């Protein structure tokens, strides 16, 4: 059974967060609940299944080498005429799409992102806007001042949140790519 209280994500290194968070604090209503991230699978399995899933995810992740991603360009998605989301495009989409596909094969019923958009679209959300003109203006302003960020994707994270008031996502497990490294952060993030 899947749940909206967990996800599998890529989290950029904390050293890259300041310029992303500067934007999110001003324009992203989800800034408190979610850390900067690229969603791979959401919704995901309940936290109680993380331990069992770690072994399966570790097996497939060791066959995927770490790779570089650059966040240089802003794009947006129209949800309706009054709802837009602005996001950073992580370049090397093919590698992200392959990683997501391999992980999704382990939990095929967690395909909500693909069913919602017709395909997996790697992105790092930074803002919402109530209309197209507002979104285009925001996109132009942010793009003009943006300095591209690069990082190595070397792990995926299982994240979880409780119900209100404990509804902020936290990392529970980190699974390394290209090597057999699993970090249990469950006892260090509370």
Spatial strand arrangement across the major sheet: 2-1-7-8-9
- Report on the biggest sheet: 5 strands, antiparallel
* Shape by Cα distribution: globular
Report helical residue fraction: 25-40%
**In terms of per-residue confidence, which ranges show pLDDT below 50 for 5 or more consecutive residues?**
none
Kindly report how far apart the N and C termini lie.
25 Å
The class by helix and strand makeup works out as alpha+beta
Summarize the helix and strand pattern as letters: EHEHEEHHEHEEEE
Number of helices: 5
* Mean pLDDT score: 93
Task: Provide the β-strand percentage band.
Answer: 25-35%
The strand count comes to: 9
Question: What structural keywords apply?
Answer:
alpha+beta; 29% helix; globular; 190 residues; five-stranded antiparallel beta sheet
How does this structure look, described?
This protein is α+β, with helices and mostly antiparallel strands and 190 residues long. It has five helices and nine strands, in the order E-H-E-H-E-E-H-H-E-H-E-E-E-E. The strands form two sheets. Strands 2-1-7-8-9 form a five-stranded antiparallel β-sheet, covered by helices on one side. It has a four-stranded antiparallel β-sheet with strand order 5-4-3-6, with helices on both faces. A hairpin with a 5-residue loop joins strand 8 (170-176) and strand 9 (182-184).
């Amino acid at each position: 059974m899947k749940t909206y209280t967990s996800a599998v994500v890529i989290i950029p290194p904390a050293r890259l967060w300041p310029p992303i968070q500067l934007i999110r604090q001003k324009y992203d209503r989800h800034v408190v609940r979610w850390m900067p991230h690229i969603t791979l699978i959401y919704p995901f399995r309940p936290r109680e299944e993380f331990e069992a899933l770690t072994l399966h995810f570790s097996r497939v992740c060791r066959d995927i080498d770490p790779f570089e991603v650059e966040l240089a360009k802003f794009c947006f998605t129209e949800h309706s005429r009054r709802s837009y989301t602005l996001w950073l495009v992580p370049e090397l989409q093919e590698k992200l799409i392959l990683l997501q596909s391999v992980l999704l094969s382990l939990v095929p019923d967690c395909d909500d992102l693909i069913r919602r958009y017709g395909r997996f679209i790697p992105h790092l959300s930074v803002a919402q806007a109530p209309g197209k003109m507002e979104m285009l203006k925001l996109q132009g302003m942010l793009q003009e001042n943006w300095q591209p960020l690069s990082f190595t994707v070397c792990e995926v994270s299982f994240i979880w949140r409780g119900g209100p008031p404990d509804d902020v996502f936290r990392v529970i497990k980190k699974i390394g790519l290209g090597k057999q490294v699993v970090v249990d952060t469950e006892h260090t993030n509370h």
